[in-house]
Design goal:
nuclease, single chain, 5-stranded mixed beta sheet, alpha+beta, 4-stranded antiparallel beta sheet, DEDD exonuclease domain-containing protein, exonuclease activity, 599 residues, 21 helices, exonuclease
Length: 599
């Protein structure tokens, strides 16, 4: 049987439910350790095979208790084990079986940190024994002295990390003899010697010791001092280079804990390792609450474009679909909104996505696709689309500007500002026809266009509903009894604060409104902030525990707006990604599946 999985505890396990650090993890001197050693028959960890258990409980260098017993393994003892340990079958015959020993051992381990030399071996046997005999393994934190020694001692000091070698190096009072209690006592002295050595590495807590034992890079170990002195508060942290350039910007509910995680074995990203090598300090920006931290992160990334951040670096690189203001309007991809009467859809993160949504519009309504500026007086030769019947040929004046506005331009305007059903139904009808003819690849192309168009429409209507309001004041309870307060103006976070617990939040709210940023209205669905910032604010406002305190107007969306197609959008996206087994990744295998995409 394979050895049970062993995972050494991480720093996260030291945190209690409210995120605070447990007292036992604050200092190695205050931590209670149970140093354990097992002797076995040498076989696999299958729930049996343990022949002897020795454990010593210590804290602050003082021995608190001892647990030692032989164990009847329930199987033959190999001769080489007798030669190695001196334990004979005659000695084990009257010994209790492991199922009788486990209750006392588990009680001895309660509330302590388990220490062993090559801990995966000992922990694996104990976990297997608990599983075999119906005992719940308490999953204590584990510190492996062999792993710590590999990091703390050089080859020049010790040729290997065997227990006997380390016991001799640290002048242990008891030398290991391959008997459980002697080996456990030797491990105690090795542990104390290692703890003294860890002080030179600025390792003073249990969490630091556990992380130190892991395979962190030399850069992480050398730079871990950058996390010193940071506050345990929500906010933004900025890794800066020697010339004060921002290298990386991040956010967390606990700045100190998050920054420390960059110097642990859990951080394996190559670009972050490179960033840590170039960083010389970490700047902390304390925030009132998590929403302010998220917004400040976005703004700092946009302002400094840190080389090691991958997202949100260039919010200005968005594009829009514009319905031009001319006699025969057309769709145009533009980079900025103008304060005109044109209809805009967006923002899109890339030109490709905008063109995909435009293709969906062309599939649904007869908007012209040419880029010429057409005259209402002078005809222009028609293109191939008119000959194929896919364009009403306004260039040849086969349709009046009034008819064109009604049949082509108005459905697009309605789709982005009100009811998109005409466009959605037209696309769904085409998908159903194609799937009925088994033209699944073409139907999949239409589905991707529908997704791009519908996603942008739903997003823009949500943004517009918030950004048209001059002000929204909202609050939600924090974890300590106070109130997180946010003032939002035209979709931009204008101010944030947290009222003290057990005090009425109104004075704080009034004060923060008076000092809030002045935000002027502007054109488009995101007049005063990036779309990503407004979406973060929307997510915070829409949480069930957020309360709207005051608004300058009605926060409303169209009754028959794009939001009612959210379920359709989710189904289509799931089908496109292959995550929805009820909708084939090729859109459909039968026409019934296309109908199932409808609401």
């Amino acid at each position: 049987m394979a050895q049970p999985a062993y995972v050494q505890g991480t720093l996260d396990t030291l945190l209690s439910a409210d995120g605070s650090v447990e007292p036992a993890a604050l200092s190695l001197a205050d931590t209670t350790f149970v140093v354990l050693d097992l002797e076995t028959t040498g076989g696999a960890a299958d729930g049996a095979g343990i022949t002897e258990i020795g454990a010593v409980k210590v804290r602050g260098g003082v021995e608190l208790g001892v647990f030692a017993t032989l164990v009847n393994p329930g199987e033959r003892l190999p001769p080489f084990i007798t030669v190695l340990t001196g334990i004979t079958e005659a000695m084990l015959a009257p010994a209790p079986p492991i199922e009788s020993v486990l209750p006392s051992l588990l009680e001895f381990l309660r509330g302590a940190v388990l220490v062993a030399h090559n801990a995966p071996y000992d922990v694996g046997f104990l976990k297997a024994a608990c599983a075999r005999h119906g005992y719940l393994w308490p999953n204590p934190r584990v510190l492996d002295t062999a792993a710590v020694a590999r990091r703390a001692l050089t080859r020049d000091e010790v040729p290997n990390r065997k227990l006997g070698t380390l016991a001799q190096f640290f002048h242990a009072t008891v030398q290991p003899t391959h008997r459980a209690l002697d080996d456990a006592r030797a491990t105690v002295d090795v542990l104390h010697g290692l703890i003294e050595r860890l002080g030179s590495y600025r390792v003073h807590t249990l969490g630091d010791a556990i992380e130190f034992a892991k395979a962190v890079t030399p850069t992480q170990r050398r730079q871990r001092h950058l996390a010193d002195g940071l506050p345990h508060v929500p906010g933004v942290y900025v890794f800066r280079a020697a010339d004060d350039r921002a290298l990386y910007v991040g956010t967390s509910k606990d700045i100190a804990t998050r920054v420390r995680s960059y110097f642990t074995a859990s951080e394996k990203r190559a670009r972050i390792s490179e960033m840590l090598g170039a960083a010389t300090r970490v700047e902390a920006v304390e925030c009132a609450h998590s929403l302010e931290a998220e917004v400040r992160e976005l703004r700092l990334i946009a302002a400094h474009s840190p080389p090691y951040n991958r997202r949100s670096k260039y919010p200005e690189r968005v594009v829009w679909l514009k319905l031009t203001t001319e006699a025969y309007p057309r769709l145009s991809v533009v980079r900025a909104l103008a304060d005109d009467d044109a209809a805009y859809l967006g923002p899109f993160s890339s030109r490709r996505t905008a063109e995909l949504a435009a293709a969906g519009v062309y599939d649904a309504v007869p908007l012209r696709q040419c880029s010429h500026k057409l005259s209402v007086r002078t005809p222009t030769p028609a293109c191939a689309l008119a000959e194929l019947g896919r364009c009403a040929a306004p260039c040849e004046h086969k349709i009046t500007p009034e008819e064109y506005a009604t049949t082509a331009a108005l459905p697009f305007r309605d789709a982005i500002h009100g009811d998109p059903s005409q466009v959605v139904d037209a696309l769904m009808d085409r998908i159903e026809i194609l799937s009925g003819k088994c033209r699944y690849e073409e139907a999949a192309v239409l589905r991707s266009r529908l997704i791009a168009l519908l996603r942008a429409t739903v997003r823009m209507q949500r943004l517009s509903a918030l950004t048209r309001l001059g002000e929204i004041v909202a609050a939600r309870r924090d974890t300590v009894g106070g109130w997180e307060i946010s003032v939002v103006r035209h979709g931009r976070l204008a101010a944030a604060a947290t009222s003290p617990p057990r005090e009425h939040p109104r004075p704080t709210l009034d004060a923060v409104r008076l000092t809030a940023e002045t935000v002027l209205p502007g054109p488009g669905p995101v007049p005063a902030a990036t779309a990503e910032e407004t979406e973060r604010i929307l997510a915070w406002l829409e949480r069930p525990d957020t309360r709207l305190v005051e608004t300058s107007g009605d926060w409303v969306s169209p009754v028959r707006g794009a939001a009612r197609f959210t379920a359709l959008l989710n189904r289509a996206e799931a089908a496109a990604s292959g995550k929805d087994s009820s909708v084939r990744s090729s859109v459909t295998d039968r026409s019934d599946d296309a109908r199932s995409l409808r609401l």
